[in-house]
Write a sequence for this structure.
């Protein structure tokens, strides 16, 4: 007898009048918002504009949903195209069934389109949103809890998951909550990427590659515990082989990228540092440019009026110095001449006064 277990919800959908509110869809939507929020903070911290992450997500998210669904339908085609199945169910995304491998692959295509339209390098964008994607996966996995799916082998551990549904081959009982294991693992991956990015200043797509490698490592052992139907190759589930292959690619990318382009991008979004204020733009134009009249005069004479006036002022100031010197010299010469004339007149008067007594004696 189990002393403790994680209960499953009796149903994964609530109705608000005629509108169905599905737990799986809510988890996906919340995860997307968290990814965009955290990605925006990291993008701005790297020098990008606020809102750019959300603008590109408009492309990435729909592509990701389509890719995730395609991967699931292709790898589990018997659920939709075998005898007794309705192929229309392949379009019912809200009932569960999104493959992360297809979601990341096709979502990257959508992100590339959005980045290309804004002139942004895709690796820089991927580095910014990598931890947010991991958190989105952590939240999205709880949608599997609402649908009572993706559980592991039977167990009587205190954290075992109780399955009550008997549809689609399920057997009521307690099982390993592999959805919970993967959710917690994804949180750890997000923390790891954030720490490593700050510690080693990862750039050029290496933060995203670290997220991919770390997720694949956890997905490998978690996938090995699952008991739902899957295709097997050489005794391993298809997703085990996919995780192993993608893990190797991510590690190779990290090594080669670090050798070829070490460090982090200096500029992640062209023009992000420019001011958006109209007054700032006008001020800059006034400081850097000439007025229309100045431009016309410059074109007519080949010289800038402002520069010409400046040179004239400088020339006038320089020419003022010699004229001042000349006027001072003239004043000195005039004073010397006046003194000489005064001395000559005094000497003449002295001679006249000396001659008067001599004339009196002779008489």
């Amino acid at each position: 007898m189990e002393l403790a277990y994680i209960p499953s919800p009796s149903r994964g959908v609530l109705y608000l009048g005629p509108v169905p509110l599905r737990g799986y869809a809510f988890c996906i939507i919340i995860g997307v918002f968290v990814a965009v929020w955290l990605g925006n903070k990291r993008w701005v911290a790297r020098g990008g504009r606020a809102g750019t992450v959300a603008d590109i997500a408009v492309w990435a998210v729909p592509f990701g949903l389509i890719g995730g669904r395609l991967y699931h339908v292709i790898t589990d085609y018997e659920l939709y195209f075998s005898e007794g199945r309705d192929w229309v169910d392949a379009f019912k995304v809200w009932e569960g069934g999104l493959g992360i491998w297809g979601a990341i692959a096709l979502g990257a295509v959508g992100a590339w389109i959005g980045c290309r339209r804004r002139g942004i390098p895709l690796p820089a964008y991927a580095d910014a949103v990598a931890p947010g994607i991991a958190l989105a996966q952590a939240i999205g996995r709880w949608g599997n809890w609402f649908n009572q799916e993706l559980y592991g082998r039977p167990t009587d551990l205190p954290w075992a998951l109780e399955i009550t549904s008997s549809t689609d081959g399920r057997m009521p009982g307690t099982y390993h909550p592999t959805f919970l294991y993967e959710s917690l693992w994804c949180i750890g991956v997000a923390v790891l990427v954030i720490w490593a990015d700050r510690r080693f200043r990862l750039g050029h797509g290496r933060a995203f590659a670290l997220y991919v490698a770390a997720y694949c490592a956890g997905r490998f052992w978690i996938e090995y515990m699952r008991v739902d139907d899957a295709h097997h190759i050489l005794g391993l589930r298809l997703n085990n082989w996919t995780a192993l292959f993608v893990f190797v690619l991510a590690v190779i990318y990290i090594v080669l990228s670090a050798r070829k382009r070490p460090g982090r991008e200096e500029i992640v979004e062209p023009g992000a540092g420019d001011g958006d204020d109209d007054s700032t733009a006008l001020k800059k134009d006034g400081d850097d440019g000439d007025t229309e009249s100045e431009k016309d005069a410059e074109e007519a004479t080949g010289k800038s009026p402002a520069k010409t006036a400046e040179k004239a002022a400088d020339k006038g100031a320089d020419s003022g110095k010699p004229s001042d010197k000349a006027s001072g010299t003239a004043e000195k010469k005039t004073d010397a001449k006046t003194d000489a004339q005064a001395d000559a007149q005094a000497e003449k008067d002295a001679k006249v006064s000396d001659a008067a007594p001599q004339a009196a004696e002779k008489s």
Summary: The mean pLDDT is 81. The longest strand covers residues 13-16. Residues 231 and 334 are 120 Å apart (CA to CA). The radius of gyration is 44 Å.
